[in-house]
Amino acid sequence: MEFDLNDEQRALRDEARRFLEAEAPTAYARAMMDDDRGWRDDVWRHMAGLGFMALPFPETYGGVGQGFIALTILLAEMGRVVAPGPYFSSVVMAGHAVLEAGTESQRKELLPAIAAGETIATLAFDEKPARWDANGIALKATPSGGAFTITGEKRFVTDGTTAERFIVAARAGGEVGLFVTEPGAHVTATPVVLIDQTRRVADVRFDSTRAELLGDLGWVPVQRVLDRIAAGLAAEMLGGAERVLELSVAYAKDRVQFDRPIGSFQAVKHRAADMLLDVESLRSAVYYAAWALERDHADASLAASMAKAYASDAFRRVAASGIQIHGGIGFTWEHDMHLYFKRAKVSEAAFGDGVWHRERMAQLLRPRYVQ
């Protein structure tokens, strides 16, 4: 399908780009790598004031009501600057968990604070070994006095050291569901150092932590949340890949070797052309997934896996090619190229790599063709 932004969507993209390049450029990401939390309050409040946190949520719950396509546009702009901070964990992961799985009263209670940037929340999903289906959830939620208690560990929880509320995937009575921890609930978060230091993760230990079931037990709402996380992560990766291409083309025009810009050499031209093909193909996959998810299309889940599968491979290829075009300078700490390469490697593995999502696509398509 052909997808082009309308005037309102272009205005959102341009405003987000202006803000992020001025207030949260890659220099901000570098500075936050040495910060204990990984983000600054003034930048977070400014984002909230612009309505970034409220963007995808319905007005009924304190949102702006722009939907998932608008969120995809914003996430792509954040990917361009490898934006640090808890936006993805709080809005994309936890916010959509509440929106997709919570009851009406839970949405009205939890979403306004997330949409206003007043509450930092995250989703605790991964366990060991890492899987992204119902078989990967072993953590148990035990009924206790009208609520539940959770005991056990979740791995690689994004912003696990700073989150105030946790949405936890756990198993109760043999079925998987999502549970939200009570305010001030005690957890033990141990930071995990990944190669991408712009995104903070932690192993989180729950010790008889009290929590409330979000909505009802069952895998369907959990999968809806995972689909939105996969598509949102692919949108971030699109923005990063797009920026790597821009930086690489600009460098190839300026860098002179043998009295010629290196961009005039056939090998560099071919590499740049392959990068462009990856970026534009990824753009199509990402926006189709966003369109399908926003409309609850029958193929929404398939489209989300398609976008994440392609993004996992394409961003890695583009980032690696960007390093090659930049040559020696691309390997230096001072150049931004390594920020994108590291983000590409971590995002590739998060919530299923290309191999995992292609297998899932095959499973989703199998009933259509095998009788």
Into how many domains do the coordinates divide?
Answer: 3
Structural class: alpha+beta
Counting DSSP H or I runs of 4 or more residues, the number of helices is: 11
How many DSSP E strands?
Answer: 9
Main sheet attributes: strand count, strand direction, barrel closure:
7 strands, mixed
Oligomeric status of the shown chains? single chain
Low-confidence stretches: none
Which overall shape is indicated by the principal axes computed on the Cα atoms?
A: globular
Just give the CATH class of the largest domain. Mainly Alpha
Give the termini distance in whole angstroms: 29 Å
Explain this structure to me?
The chain is an alpha+beta fold and 371 residues long. It has 3 domains: 7-115, Butyryl-Coa Dehydrogenase, subunit A, domain 1 (Orthogonal Bundle), CATH 1.10.540; 121-218, Butyryl-CoA Dehydrogenase, subunit A, domain 2, CATH 2.40.110; 220-369, Butyryl-CoA Dehydrogenase, subunit A, domain 3 (Up-down Bundle). Helices cover 53% and strands 16% of the residues. The protein contains 11 helices and 9 strands. The strands form 2 sheets. Strands 1, 2, 3, 4, 5, 6 and 7 form a 7-stranded mixed beta sheet that branches. A hairpin with a 2-residue loop joins strand 8 (256-257) and strand 9 (260-261). The radius of gyration is 21 Å and the shape is globular. The two termini are 29 Å apart. The mean pLDDT is 95.
What is the strand and helix layout of this fold?
Layout: H1 7-23, H2 26-32, H3 41-49, H4 67-80, H5 87-101, H6 104-115, E1 121-124, E2 140-144, E3 147-158, E4 165-172, E5 175-181, E6 187-192, E7 201-213, H7 219-254, E8 256-257, E9 260-261, H8 266-294, H9 300-326, H10 337-349, H11 354-369
Parallel strand pairs: 1-4
Antiparallel strand pairs: 2-3, 3-7, 4-5, 5-7, 6-7, 8-9
Helix pairs in contact: 1-4, 4-7, 4-8, 5-6, 5-7, 7-8, 7-9, 7-10, 8-9, 9-10, 9-11
